[in-house]
Write a structure and sequence with these properties.
80% of the residues lie in helices and 0% in strands. By secondary structure, the chain is mainly α. The chain has one domain (3-112). 19% of the residues are buried. This is DUF5658 domain-containing protein. Residues 10-106 form the DUF5658 domain. InterPro entries: DUF5658. The chain crosses the membrane at residues 6-30, 51-72, 84-102.
Amino acid sequence: MTPSSMLWLVAVLTYGVGDLVTTAVGLRCAQIEEGMPVARRLLGDPPSAWGVARFGLFKAVLFTVFYLGAVAVARFAPGTRVDLLVPVVITVVGVAAVGNNVRVIRQIRRRYH
């Protein structure tokens, strides 16, 4: 596996899967609501299984756009290492999102259980 492929895999696992799963778990708590307006709209009011599926599809579309953009930039500007930079940035965002979701879930569970 190339370094770029490995970074994209980590990005998918953190921002794609990790954020989606922790968001879905968090929304099972009545006291938690999604903080991001776009995600909140996709998830629905109240959040539903279809909303989580829409949120997952939205993430898949984002990944496709980011990946194709990174490939295009790398092809037209060789040596820029955008093939490494883009998944690293997505991973950082994913780790932050998962960390925030876990923090909020833990706070609510401590408070109400």
